């Protein structure tokens, strides 16, 4: 955590190509999966962001050796022996993904201890799906309100029906089931590309998994998993953020090195508001060619419109003609950014629960605002880029959790954005 802030002089159309980094939410479970084997797991295209550093710290604290090559964006993890089964409380509280280590700990070592995980304040974030699944696979679960103590000599495959298609839950159970005895069926599984990417990693490590990426996954447990060398999936949320920022500023941005079908919901919505969108095999380009129109947006689980882009896209809706309707259907408190966006002049009403109405187009004007969480911060940056005058965004450490070099990448597209504060002062001066 640091006291850095971004200062943005808005009003410059963003133009050019931007290289998309590896996906935070794909890399996090794969780092956890490295705990499942004694052999080396090498991840290329690793995003160098705070959450990834914390996850590496976590697996290191459990006994893994971690060699991070920052220049190559690559990490080698070797968990020959585990020396602890307790997820450090500080890391657990700061990052929900910390609970992703529980599945591997149970599968490999037979027990695990973890505090109730925390993370961005965007609503309730229980781990019931994971825990109920472990219990159905024979684990003994103790929860004293503070910490989970889970133990299982050998997990046994089971037929699981998930109450909710939780991303972390599905990933935890996939990892646990890979080394369990016998067959596990996961019904109502999360279908996010990051879940499919984890399954692909596990398959390459020797797991027997069918159906990942669909809501019905079958896992035949194996006795051992092996090392793997893979490339992390590109970040569809980072890509969507840049595309929206391009359109929002009246610019023309192309995101490079993406998996285009993963961006379908964003491409579809950008086209619906009236942006010009083109796509190639590994790139997507979006620009605004005229007036934009209001739409209805529902944030859902995949392949619905991603909740992680709901705030960013809502910002764009302030520039669309008419009244847009936004409905957040994944998290129960993910409209917190609205009051900050209003300080820039946005006309948004939260109309009850997780729905909002946005009137547009509105001329946004610079103001001082605060990033309350990762995606709220991204939305405010996008708004600041389009606003007239100076916008200052405080608490951008939230943004550093999930976007790699966001300010540097934006500057390369023409944005006037500077990082101010202690971390900025500590950055080496280029010679
Ligand atoms: N839920 C339950 N019961 C559970 C688990 C979840 O009801 O046992 C509910 C939650 O309350 C929430 C919804 O399900 O309302 C979604 O939770 P889920 O478990 O699917 O999300 P997650 O695994 O905590 C991941 C991403 C999030 C992303 C969501 C939805 C990671 C590390 N995080 O979270 O990413 O928003 O899936 O796609 O993969 C972000 O990157 O900013 C971020 C928050």
Explain this structure to me?
Strand 9, helix 6 (167-178) and strand 10 (183-187) form a beta-alpha-beta unit. The chain is of the alpha/beta class and 431 residues long. It starts with a strand and ends in a 5-residue tail after the last helix. The chain has a five-stranded mixed beta sheet. Helix 4 runs parallel beside helix 6. The longest helix has 13 residues, at 236-248. 31% of the residues lie in helices and 26% in strands.
Keywords:
globular; single chain; four-stranded mixed β-sheet; alpha/beta; 26% strand; 431 residues; binds uridine-diphosphate-2(N-acetylglucosaminyl) butyric acid; five-stranded mixed β-sheet; 24 strands
Short description:
31% of the residues lie in helices and 26% in strands.
Topology:
Elements: E1 5-9, E2 15-19, H1 24-33, E3 40-44, H2 50-61, E4 65-69, E5 74-78, H3 89-94, H4 102-109, E6 111-115, H5 128-136, E7 140-143, E8 147-151, E9 159-161, H6 167-178, E10 183-187, H7 193-204, E11 208-210, E12 216-220, E13 228-231, H8 236-248, E14 252-256, H9 264-273, E15 275-279, E16 283-288, E17 296-300, E18 305-306, H10 310-317, E19 322-328, H11 338-343, E20 347-352, E21 355-360, E22 368-370, H12 374-386, E23 390-394, H13 397-400, H14 406-412, E24 416-420, H15 422-426
Parallel strand pairs: 2-14, 3-13, 9-10, 17-18, 17-19, 22-23
Antiparallel strand pairs: 1-23, 1-24, 3-5, 4-5, 6-8, 7-8, 10-12, 11-12, 14-16, 15-16, 19-21, 20-21
Helix pairs in contact: 1-2, 1-7, 4-6, 5-6, 6-7, 8-10, 8-12, 10-12
The structure holds uridine-diphosphate-2(N-acetylglucosaminyl) butyric acid (EPU).
